[in-house]
Amino acid sequence: MMNCDANNPEVDQLRGEYINLNKGLVSLPFNFPGTKYRKALQSRSNVLKYINQKVKERQQQINDGCEGNADDLLSFLFNQIDLSEEEIADHLLGFIFAAHDTLSSVIPLAIYFLEGCQRAVDQLREEHLHIRKMMESRGETELNWTDYKQMEFTQCVINETLRLGNVVRYLPRKVTKTIQFKGYEIPSGYTVIPAIAAVHMDPSLFDDPQCFNPWRWQRESSSPARNNNFMSFGGGQRLCPGIEFAKVELSVFIHRLVLAYVWETEEPDPPMALPMVDFARGLPMKIRPYMSPIV
Ligand code: HEM
């Protein structure tokens, strides 16, 4: 996003600040010394300081005519004429939060759910071995769009991981007009919080909702395009703009995972909402190479 070197110690420090920010994101808003909320506010300001510094450095490089060919989000944002430096920094923080945290939570959840469902792993391997054979017949080693469109069962696994994993559990909304809802009046100015996780775990909407069942998405009536009860990417005007990109990234990850590895978790470590979905022990795993017939 900003062309930072991941091995740079300041990036490590930034990571620490960012973790604090996340921990306090869903906490009681008491700004007292020692509270998670206060730490989160301090960390947010430190993260923004870092980002602002990067924005200023890049502005300086642009002014000096030595920007190089930084092919990153920061350069893209600089090319949007109407954005102030403050808006650019805010966009960067928003993107780190929206794009990184969500995906980095969904990936371990997929690994975790799949470990408990060998039949799904077998079916994924079959799908991806077929795709790998097609790539070999073309003499190519990189996945392309046609390959991606063949990953039908993979999409079912992704949907099911998102439904059961619930990385985004609720979405606050401000009521802009007083409405009546099921006999209650919700006044304008109130905040409502749709509990997405509750919808995803409702047995009247999803059969046996506690069960990881990617096959449920194969039924036409359950496809996300037809199913208003699938809300992992939000909905309406604020629908996640990264939805397709996220699915491509997850699909490529699953492709590599099932064709290259066999994995098992070392100890029970179920995901928990802490309040962000996470694994208390970091999901330690044993990994071996997968001896595929053609890879
Ligand atoms: C599996 C991964 C992801 C999940 C589950 C997810 C989920 C969501 C949800 C539920 C929202 C709606 C928030 C709201 O209504 O208030 C949202 C918004 C957003 N997402 Fe994602 N997202 C994912 C990946 C990404 C990626 C990869 C990007 C960028 C490349 C991204 C960029 C955004 C942005 C910029 C918004 C704000 C949109 C707005 O406020 O109008 N997301 N995401």
Automatic annotation (TrEMBL):
<keyword id="KW-0479">Metal-binding</keyword>
<dbReference type="GO" id="GO:0016132">
    <property type="term" value="P:brassinosteroid biosynthetic process"/>
</dbReference>
<dbReference type="GO" id="GO:0010268">
    <property type="term" value="P:brassinosteroid homeostasis"/>
</dbReference>
<keyword id="KW-0560">Oxidoreductase</keyword>
<keyword id="KW-0503">Monooxygenase</keyword>
<dbReference type="GO" id="GO:0016020">
    <property type="term" value="C:membrane"/>
</dbReference>
<dbReference type="GO" id="GO:0016125">
    <property type="term" value="P:sterol metabolic process"/>
</dbReference>
<keyword id="KW-0349">Heme</keyword>
<dbReference type="GO" id="GO:0020037">
    <property type="term" value="F:heme binding"/>
</dbReference>
<dbReference type="GO" id="GO:0005506">
    <property type="term" value="F:iron ion binding"/>
</dbReference>
<keyword id="KW-0812">Transmembrane</keyword>
<keyword id="KW-0408">Iron</keyword>
<dbReference type="InterPro" id="IPR002403">
    <property type="entry name" value="Cyt_P450_E_grp-IV"/>
</dbReference>
<dbReference type="GO" id="GO:0016705">
    <property type="term" value="F:oxidoreductase activity, acting on paired donors, with incorporation or reduction of molecular oxygen"/>
</dbReference>
<comment type="similarity">
    <text>Belongs to the cytochrome P450 family.</text>
</comment>
<keyword id="KW-1133">Transmembrane helix</keyword>
<dbReference type="Pfam" id="PF00067">
    <property type="entry name" value="p450"/>
</dbReference>
<keyword id="KW-0472">Membrane</keyword>
<dbReference type="InterPro" id="IPR001128">
    <property type="entry name" value="Cyt_P450"/>
</dbReference>
<protein>
    <submittedName>
        <fullName>Cytochrome P450 90B1</fullName>
    </submittedName>
</protein>
<dbReference type="GO" id="GO:0004497">
    <property type="term" value="F:monooxygenase activity"/>
</dbReference>
<dbReference type="InterPro" id="IPR036396">
    <property type="entry name" value="Cyt_P450_sf"/>
</dbReference>
<dbReference type="InterPro" id="IPR017972">
    <property type="entry name" value="Cyt_P450_CS"/>
</dbReference>
<feature type="binding site" description="axial binding residue">
    <location>
        <position position="240"/>
    </location>
    <ligand>
        <name>heme</name>
    </ligand>
</feature>
